[in-house]
Amino acid sequence: MRCLVLSDIHSNLEALEAVLRDVGPVDQVWCLGDVVGYGPDPNACVQLLRSLSPLCIAGNHDWATLGKLDLQDFNPDAREANLWNRKQLTPDTLAYLENLPEVIEEPPFTLAHGSPRHPIWEYIIYNSTARANFDQFSTPYCFVGHTHTPVIFRLVPAGGEGGTICEQITPGVRERFELGTERAILNPGGVGQPRDGDPRASYVLLDSDALTVEYRRVEYPIEKTQAKMMEHDLPIRLVLRLKYGW
Ligand code: ZN
């Protein structure tokens, strides 16, 4: 099965459209949360995503727009953009976001926005955090989002006696990885607000039969998204960061 794995669309319609064009026909779409927040098109993004009948889980920005999270935990720009997003949501969009689960198990994969241990909030940035999280899901592999940074954490044998260490791989664009016998936590990077210094939308193409993943990047008309954000008076720092992929 050809499966598009994406995360952190963040109301960026141009980025989402570019990803869908670039990936071509797929059998399934898996979305790892944060469909809304930050960007200018929350309803259109939810609508387009829903038309693909995805497996989709909730992220912290989705929950914040629903009032399920305290916005005090957000930085001022994220808070302002989230409040603006909240005001735009139609009853239909709200109902969809309300019903998103925190975790989905789709063997041999688990899907969680932040981490399997704390699905909504935890960031997996360090090997130590990834290592601790391998004990928190039972499938061989787990997809997470939330950091907007493409990465693979692998649990590899070390020191004999069944010991393991966690290693981190930064996947190259269009590089294909085989998901072997080693367990792995994979982050496809962010669609609508990449933060690894590359402003192009990031996603993963998974072949769930061959168990291979390909990390991909695609350009989108950033200026168009930025112009909409300016028009709606969204925080300037959020507008500018799209251009730098930060
Ligand atoms: Zn996010």
Distance from first to last alpha carbon: 32 Å
Bound molecules: zinc ion
Characterize the biggest β-sheet.
6 strands, mixed
- Overall outline: globular
- H/E topology pattern: EHEHEHHHEEHEEEEEEEHH
- Oligomeric category: single chain
Number of domains: 1
Radius of gyration, Cα only, in angstroms?
17 Å
Q: What structural category do the secondary elements indicate? A: alpha/beta
Q: How many E-type strands?
A: 12
Q: Which residues sit in consecutive blocks of at least 5 with pLDDT less than 50?
A: none
CATH class: Alpha Beta
Q: How much beta, percentage-wise?
A: 15-25%
Which homologous superfamily in CATH is the superfamily? Metallo-dependent phosphatases
| Main sheet: strand order | 3-2-1-11-12-9
Please state the average pLDDT score.
Answer: 97
Q: How would you characterize this protein structure?
A:
It is a single chain. With 246 residues, the chain is α/β, with parallel strands linked by helices. The chain has one domain (2-244): 4-Layer Sandwich (Purple Acid Phosphatase, chain A, domain 2), CATH 3.60.21. The protein contains 8 helices and 12 strands. It has helices spanning 13-23, 42-50, 60-65, 76-88, 91-98, 127-133, 222-231, 236-244; strands at 2-6, 28-31, 55-56, 103-106, 109-112, 141-143, 150-157, 164-169, 176-178, 184-188, 201-207, 212-218. The strands form 2 sheets. The protein has a 6-stranded mixed β-sheet with strand order 3-2-1-11-12-9. A 6-stranded mixed β-sheet has the order 4-5-6-10-7-8, covered by helices on one side. Strand 5, helix 6 and strand 6 (141-143) form a beta-alpha-beta unit. 45% of the residues are buried. Bound molecules: zinc ion. The site of zinc ion has 7 residues, from loops.
